[in-house]
Amino acid sequence: MRQSSLINSGKKRVSSILPSELDSGRLPDHIAIIMDGNGRWAKGRGLPRSIGHKQGVEALKKTLRLCDDWGISALTVYAFSTENWSRPGEEVSFLLTLFEHVLQKELESLIEEQVKINFLGDIGVLPDKLKELMKKAIDSTQGNKGIRFNVCTNYGGRRELVFAAKKLALKAVNGELDPNLIDEEIFSNELFTAKETDPDLLIRTSGENRLSNFLLWQLAYSEIHITNVLWPDFDANALKKALLDYQSRLRRFGGV
Ligand code: IPE
Ligand code: IPE
Ligand code: MG
Question: Which residues contact 25 (CB under 8 A, 6 or more apart)?
């Protein structure tokens, strides 16, 4: 296992060892997570939803490091959906400001820890300051060799598919592409996830049994683990359970 002797907030970070119950040879290469339940976590404690979101960031920081330590190559998380704009304006602005603050505060550690960050989604419409920080984060971690960390921000699976169709149509109209040549590979190269592998495992927290418009194309053959744990409570034990569940599956990909 890759040992990280990393500096985090001026302290040497102690890396976590893969639990012995897990088979290091059969781990998912790429994990996707629908981080759900921040609001319910807060409500259960009589706290405002915003505190749930803040606590959710802590869970994400821990999960990213655990995945990195345990040998997962890519982590893709759902941070804000194209449907989340329908929440009260106050909550939307809180979330966007939170993303900005977290990115500003964490970028240095992410660079040091060799994390390669990317943002997937309809980024263009986000506030300028956030967009600038995202660009800075992508540019400054591009050459990093550690875990690939994809943050889906203003992401919607349907919008992603429509964007891809539009890009291909434009190429065809401009004479750059013969429509008869469009196949799954050419199509997927137009998605936000172009150059990324499909997730092997999807985890959804807070017990909801739905995709909520997440990675509709990419999850075609992912194993799905749904846990009742609310996202802010997600920890090493919850991740271990998800991985044990994954290792108990037989992936057939349509075969026998
Ligand atoms: C997930 O938690 C965070 C985002 C969608 C941004 P929620 O805010 O959806 O929490 P619940 O589902 O209301 O508990
Ligand atoms: C999915 O959670 C989106 C994110 C985690 C960012 P939601 O809380 O928005 O999903 P629904 O509304 O329960 O389907
Ligand atoms: Mg929710």
Answer: none
Residue minimizing CA distance to atom 11 of ligand 2: 212
CA-closest residue to ligand 2 atom 3: 81
Q: Give the three-state DSSP class for 224.
A: strand
**119 alpha carbon – ligand 3 mean position (Å):** 20
Ligand 1 center to residue 230 CA distance, Å? 9
The answer to whether 159 and 122 have CB atoms below 8 angstroms apart is: yes
Report in angstroms the alpha-carbon separations of 41 from 34, 93, 122, 180: 15, 20, 28, 50
What are the structural domain ranges in the chain?
26-156+199-247
Q: How far apart are CA 125 and CA 21, in angstroms?
A: 45
Question: Which ranges of the chain would DSSP assign to H, the alpha helix?
Answer: 38-43, 49-70, 89-112, 128-141, 157-173, 184-188, 236-247
The CATH number of the domain covering residues in 26-156+199-247:
3.40.1180.10
CB proximity list for 237: less than 8 A, separation 6 or greater:
none
The reply to whether 36 belongs to the active site is yes
Query: Can you give the pLDDT at residue 1?
Result: 41
The environment of the single-atom ion ligand 3, i.e. residues with CB closer than 5 A, is: 36
Tens of pLDDT, residue by residue over 50-95, are: 999 999 999 999 999 999 999 999 999 999 999 999 999 999 999 9
Per-residue burial over 79-100, b = 16 or more CB atoms within 10 Å of its CB, e = otherwise: bbbbebeeeeeeeeebbbebbb
CA 15 to chain centre: 21
